[in-house]
Design goal:
- By secondary structure, this protein is an alpha/beta fold.
- It has two domains: 13-167, Rossmann fold (3-Layer(aba) Sandwich), CATH 3.40.50.1980; 182-356, Rossmann fold.
- The protein has helices at residues 2-11, 16-19, 47-53, 77-80, 100-105, 128-135, 151-165, 168-189, 221-225, 231-234, 249-255, 274-281, 283-286, 289-292, 309-323, 333-345, 350-356; strands spanning 20-24, 30-34, 40-43, 63-64, 90-93, 97-98, 112-116, 139-142, 199-203, 215-216, 229-230, 245-246, 259-263, 296-299.
- Strands 11-9-13-14 form a four-stranded parallel β-sheet. It has a three-stranded parallel β-sheet with strand order 3-7-8, sandwiched between helices. It has a three-stranded mixed β-sheet with strand order 4-5-6.
- Strand 5 and strand 6 form a beta hairpin.
- It is elongated.
- The chain starts with a helix and ends in a 12-residue tail after the last helix.
């Protein structure tokens, strides 16, 4: 009799609590997922980057189509550190345009779909509930956030993703790392009076594609972190609410910034267009003191398939070293970048990425 009971017990389904657990995602949805998750897919601009930060990238069983594209320029350290992504099956188009039919044919199948929502221009496609209904796979919604006003969205999403994939300790380490970099950058220059801070301008910022030198970012985080005097930010009381904008050429000339920085994403426009071409050929820009004295410097793009936070910190340390060399005397910008990249994505990729942008990052840009 005891043997029969044991056999019956073995055939009965296990209590639901041992088979599944409940996650609350960033939309407040209660999503039931397996106790142990080993296979996922990441939907939306930058979702796979966050998974890589958590050192769980090997759990991805498929990718969106941006990972397989071959391009002359690329500023995604997470992808450079993981060439395996190029060989994985595709489950949909980039920016969250998921294909439920493709997802359902994946073998092995994902146990959970991690999907970014609410990222404005970044993510579209089916909403989490609809995607879950169509595929029968749990969908956990996340918000990408940033290191500014939406910092809590970023931190919360990393914690939720870590809870899904079992990387809670790594998430704590990543968030601590973020806070330590921000604190270190700010404290090095916090006591410098406003009037002693150099004036700066960043041109060539990409948004929805590459742009020329008038394109800038009033809220450019590296300037903020090192307390540089970003003229585009100070020019408008509402500038802190604007992530990208165009500044009139006449205004840039009027400002005549102490230092000019070139977002190297502008190189995508080719040799006969873009910010670098304009600085070399436009008579108005040639009148700028920074152009005359060679104080024009290249920085790595960070807004490439959403924000690459590791590149934000890398650019900030370079800019800090340039503007306040005595405050950053212990920093070698390229070495610091690789230290950051190694911690965040697992490999030192500065040289590889810099090579894609003509080796113009973290140096003065030749204009003759």
């Amino acid at each position: 009799m005891r043997l029969i009971l044991l056999i019956i017990a073995a055939l009965l389904p296990l209590p639901q609590s041992t088979l599944a657990r409940e996650i609350t995602d960033t939309l407040g949805r209660k999503v039931e997922i397996p106790d142990t998750v080993e296979r996922v897919i990441c939907s939306g601009s930058g979702c796979l980057r966050l998974l890589t930060y958590l050192q769980a990238q090997d759990m991805a069983v498929a990718v969106d189509d941006i990972e397989g594209r071959r391009r002359q320029f690329d500023a995604r350290p997470y992808a450079m550190a993981n060439p395996r992504f190029k060989t994985l099956p595709v489950f949909g188009e980039f920016r969250g345009k998921d294909n439920p039919e493709l997802i359902m044919t994946l073998d092995p199948a994902p146990q959970v779909i991690l999907k970014l929502v609410g990222t404005g221009k970044g993510t579209v496609g089916p909403d989490p509930a609809a995607l879950q209904e169509k595929t029968g796979i749990p969908v956990v919604a996340l918000k990408y956030g940033n290191l500014g006003k939406m910092k809590e969205d970023l931190y919360n999403s990393l914690r939720i993703m870590a809870e899904v994939v079992g990387r809670e300790q790594r998430a704590d380490a990543v968030l601590t790392f973020f806070d330590e970099q921000i604190t270190d950058l700010k404290k090095r220059t916090a006591d410098i009076p406003e009037e002693q801070r150099p004036s700066v301008y960043l041109g060539g910022v990409a948004y929805a594609g590459p742009h020329g030198f008038q394109s800038t970012e009033p809220t450019y985080p590296p300037f903020h972190f090192v307390n540089a005097r970003n003229l585009a930010d100070n020019a408008n009381p509402k500038a802190g609410e604007i992530t990208s904008t165009d500044i009139a050429k006449e205004k840039i000339v009027e400002w005549n910034p102490d230092y000019l920085f070139l977002d190297l994403s502008t190189l995508q426009l080719g040799d006969a267009a873009g910010g670098l071409f304009e600085l070399k050929t436009d008579p108005a820009y040639r009148t700028l003191n920074a152009v005359k004295t060679g104080k024009v410097y290249g920085v790595l793009p960070y807004n490439w398939y959403n924000q690459n936070f590791e590149s934000i910190f890398s650019d900030a340390y370079f800019i800090g070293k340039l503007l306040y060399p005595e405050r950053f005397s212990d920093i070698d910008p390229a070495a610091k970048a690789d230290e950051i990249y190694t911690f965040m994505v697992g490999k030192p990729v500065f040289a590889e990425m810099n090579a894609l942008f003509g080796n113009l990052a973290f140096r003065d840009v030749p204009l003759n």
